[in-house]
Amino acid sequence: MVESAQTFDKLPSVQQLVNHYNTTLSQTHLRELLNDENRNQHLRASLQNQDGSEVILDLTHVKVDEAAVKLLHQVTSDVQLHEKIEGMFTGQKLNNTEKRSVLHVALRMREDETLIVPDSTEGDAVKNVHEVLKRIHAFSELVRSGQVKGYSGKTLKNTLILGIGGSYLGPEFVFEALRQDASSKQAADGRQLKFLANVDPIDFNRAIQGLDIEETLVVINSKTFTTAETILNAVTVKNYIINHYKNLHPDVEDTQSFVQAHFCAVSTNLPLTSQFGVADDRVFGFWDWVGGRFSVCSAVGVLPLSLHYGYENVRDFLSGVKSIDDHFRNTHDLSQNLPVLLGLYGFYNTHVAGHNTRSILPYCQSLLKFPAHIQQLDMESNGKSVTKEGVRFTDGAQAGPIIFGEPGTNGQHSFYQLMHQGRVIPAEFIGFSQSQTPIHIDGYPVSNHNELMSNFFAQPDALALGKTLEQLKAEGVPEFLYQHKLFTGDRPSLSILFTGKLTAFACGQLLGLYEHRVAVEGFIYGINSFDQWGVELGKVLAKDVRNVFADKEKGQDVDVKSKFNPATAYLLEKYLEKM
Ligand SMILES: O=P(O)(O)OC[C@H]1O[C@H](O)[C@H](O)[C@@H](O)[C@@H]1O
């Protein structure tokens, strides 16, 4: 049991693990570990889907042995992992600094399930979720079938999503993931979905380029409806639409009707959406127990994705996430619980083996935005240095890793050099047995997908096994190149293989695996994975700079030297000269 004043690194099981790694495993090459099939068979887990497909997690390329696995399981009981997981499904206030439940799992529950939010007047969260889902279903059908039209009577074929952070990255990841999925592609035929996230005016221009605004429905995605970037973008788009129609109809005075015809919103802040001019029946709500980065299964993702891909495809996506929720909650044999294993081995690579980075490498081009989503999900959740109870980590203990990634094979021609011969970066390979869009060129020995996947299987071994001096000598490599061509190997990775295609359901499963993995790692570190105080300071300081710019834009004299440190004042003055 973790004492409130104790940090995770002081737990006996964690210390024994670190000790075991330092004394034994750090000196045991992965080559040796991988040869032991007895060991390997305990490092595979899989989830069988109803259609016969499987999600397989292969942990054989992580630097663990039987003793390490045992200690990792001891860690799960020391941190009371099972109880914490259950707390997440029953609405405990796991987000203690904001006094909130963490209930994104309720977004995926079936209509016949019930979840009464503790200490709240909200009642049954599942009932409320399904009410919003039904409204989205009906509304998206009306828009897609052309029954709800834009101001000028045109069908709303385009959706423009405004939002940033959790109100952007998740929807974009799923949008890209399903673009080449046969069923989603067919449903999106003739439609466009675009994103506007950055407050940079360039992003506004990129978003509206080639967009017929009369055919566009704008979705403002903002949990708080106070995020500076999103609100400025919303006002910018609103002005653009009003000006567009004013030019066409100079006599119309009621500009509000332009706005009402083209905007809807997803938010928890109804007073502000109405103040902005969005009609109340075009606001789709969610709840403070859904964190921004966990909100893709709320209206934040479901509304725009249903407008674009149709509700049925989005429902399949939600079912995929739900299948992982059930697996996560009900698989008590933790050696088969995929999100728990991902969390445990993530923690192991970061804290025990001491690698501070992690790369996410999907061998599927449709997942090109997955690493960016996981970056926010993981780094904003677990990038903390203090326990839930407010005890600061000491002695160099650190939570959450630095995350980056790119689809394979593109990454291989970019940063893999460093991963093979530079720093050790635990890698996560994600692959599918079948392609969304198979191609086989006559005369080529394998299909294009198999060409891709041959790399998926080769890379973990290249990282782990490396290439020895003996091999180089046997190949006749000239002596002066020995050190350059040497691969030390011993570099850990894990692989996730979906034995089907990237469907909406599989996409949901992938999301569920990583959402829960983040929670598991947070539970082990004993941190609050569900707040994000670290993003606040920059926002506050930007206000001071903004005030200076505002004075200057009004033509007033500004004195930056008295307001900023000399280093920043110097650069600001240079900027102000040419602003
Ligand atoms: O949805 P919003 O309230 O507009 O918030 C958008 C984003 O901004 C904040 O700065 C947080 O760091 C994110 O977690 C959040 O997703």
TrEMBL record:
**Gene3D superfamilies documented for this protein:** 1.10.1390.10, Glucose-6-phosphate isomerase like protein, domain 1 (3.40.50.10490)
Question: Could you tell me the EC number(s) of this protein?
Answer: 5.3.1.9
The answer to whether keyword Isomerase applies is yes
Keyword Cell inner membrane carried by entry:
no
Gene Ontology molecular function: any one: carbohydrate derivative binding
Which CDD domains does this UniProt record tie to the protein?
SIS_PGI_1, SIS_PGI_2
Q: Which reaction does it catalyse?
A: alpha-D-glucose 6-phosphate = beta-D-fructose 6-phosphate
Its pathway is: Carbohydrate degradation; glycolysis; D-glyceraldehyde 3-phosphate and glycerone phosphate from D-glucose: step 2/4
Quote the PROSITE patterns the UniProt record gives. P_GLUCOSE_ISOMERASE_1, P_GLUCOSE_ISOMERASE_2, P_GLUCOSE_ISOMERASE_3
Entry keywords, A to Z: Gluconeogenesis, Glycolysis, Isomerase
Q: Which Pfam families match?
A: PGI (PF00342)
Q: Which NCBIfam families match?
A: PRK00179.1 (NF001211)
The identity of this protein, by name, is Glucose-6-phosphate isomerase
Q: Give the originating organism.
A: Stylonychia lemnae (Ciliate)
